[in-house]
Amino acid sequence: MTLTSAPADVFAPVPPLAARARSIGGSPVRDILAVTARPEVINFAGGLPAPELFDAEGIAAAFRAVLAEVPGQALQYSTTEGEPTLRAALAERMSVRGLPTTADDVLITTGSQQALTLLATALVEPGDTVLVEEPCYLAALQVFGFAGARVLGVPGDADGPDPEALAELVVRERPKLLYTVPTFQNPTGRTVPAERRAALASVAARHGLWIVEDDPYGELRFEGERVPWIAAHAEAADRTVLLGSFSKVMAPGLRLGWLRAPAALRRACVVAKQAADLHTPTVNQLAAARYLADRDLDAHVARVAAVYGERRDAMLAGLAEVLPEGASWQRPEGGMFLWVRLPSAYDTTALLGQVVRHDVAYVPGAPFYAGAPDRATLRLCFVTETPERIGEGLRRLGRALSG
Predict the structure, then answer these.
(1) pLDDT at 13 (0 to 100)
(2) Residues 6+ apart with CB under 8 A from 231
(3) I need a labelling partner for 342 at 20 to 30 A (CA). Which of 35, 73, 204, 271 fits?
(4) Is pTM beyond 0.70 here?
């Protein structure tokens, strides 16, 4: 049989991209970071931890130790569930913080972002309804959009989602899950109080609802008392998934996260992870476990939080002088972000180009909404710039907004 080539002008087109790939856009934050990569830009747009505060020496020592002592294990395939030493260490950290946990309750993921993807794969059918905070972490909206979910925002206030509004939505819409970042939320920086967490757990128990509790920032507290996880409430114990990450407290380049979930859902996530990447890199897991054994992560986090607290204070001190009359903002007790609402005449998306021309950047608030956005809002990240550069960046922002 002889194969012949068709003329180039009669080639048939290749099949199209999947509908979800055509309909879901990229991350606006990533797009802004690409535009503002110039060193002269004072960048309040990113959600990146401060690189000068990484314990590079301690992490390097942990990698050297595992590569010297167990190179065959460190460079080999591992189980999908994750390295037992790391799972046990994480279980101990959660137990000490009031959530009894065993190593078998934990699945190691390639960042907590992967944990979200695994949960969407395991729980969400195309067309299912998912509830989120309003506003909501951008990449969660991306994940649920890719899963084909119908995403609805839960009305709320400075204390987080309104439990009564949540109950009404659950009865009316029959959603699969509620996604929430209850501590130092991205983007608002707000923290849901203990009483409201209990009320959200009660709604989930009464009406049948999964709660996905994402906690990447919870250890970065500058003031106030720690609030127990929603997962620690007995009413929600069988229906809450707790996500965690080393990205904000150790280093994001390790791409190490985890989920703690009831057994059946955790097993489904294991199968989804096998289809995605088999397992999270072994050497990274072993190095993280060694770091936890040899170093005091809590002391390191306390040092980082002290610096971040100074940077938050610098931003709070300068806002009133540079923002237009009628602007408002919250004082976060920790985390990385500050949420600003300008007077309603402002559109922060339309203004961004003008602001960047003044060599400063923020993230417009509109992309963080599942429903109708508040276009007068914006997110400021305060952790990656020094107090001096924060002051100068705010002055530039003030000039841009007044021009």
Answers:
(1) 87
(2) 99, 211, 213, 237, 240, 241, 242, 260
(3) 35
(4) yes
The region that residue 323 occupies, defined by phi over 0 for left and psi between -120 and 50 for alpha, beta otherwise, is beta
Provide the 3-class DSSP secondary structure of residue 187: coil
For residue 261, which phi and psi values (nearest 5 degrees)? -145, 160
Residue whose token pair is 């699945």:
107
| Section 35-64 average pLDDT | 92
| Confidence check: pLDDT of 159 > 80 | yes
For the residues 338-349, what does the mean pLDDT come to?
A: 97
Per residue in 132-162, is it b (16+ CB within 10 Å) or e — as a string?
A: bbbbbbbbbbbbbbbbbbbbbbbebeeebbb
* pLDDT surpassing 80 at residue 153: yes
Structure tokens at 314: 């610098």
pLDDT in tens, 219-261: 999 999 999 999 999 999 999 999 999 999 999 999 999 999 9
Is residue 130 within 8 Å of 151, Cβ to Cβ?
A: yes
Average pLDDT over residues 262-287: 98
Q: How far is Cα 376 from Cα 373, in angstroms, rounded to an integer?
A: 9
17 Ramachandran zone, left/alpha/beta (phi>0; psi -120 to 50): beta
Is 7's pLDDT higher than 80?
no
